[in-house]
Structure prediction request, 124 residues.
Amino acid sequence: MNAIEQARQAYAPTQVSIKTERSVEAQLFSQVTARLRAAMTSKADGFSRIASAVHENRRMWATMAADVASEHNGLPRELRAQLFYLAEFTNLHSARVLRKEADLDTLIEINTAVLRGLNGRGAI
Prediction:
């Protein structure tokens, strides 16, 4: 790298990405939901891809349930209860998906609704 390029990099404006907890949660919901959608349309690895995506979704919701169950969580009590209920429902529905008694649509819809709420585009 020559001196001019070094000077450009040294004096170039830097953009520091500031991520809030909410934006990190939204990003996680977005990624997990994308995996669920991809698994739903996948023909190649079929059920193993579905099982993997469902497992990741369950882990995310289990973490969410533990967080909202904590007395130190700053969300309103009613919202915490609703999220905890969704976590329980997601776990039960996931078991049905893994037994091939249900599809991924419901899990995707729930995640999408929560994602909209995190992004400020509608309540859950």
User: Anything to note?
Assistant: The longest helix spans residues 46-69.
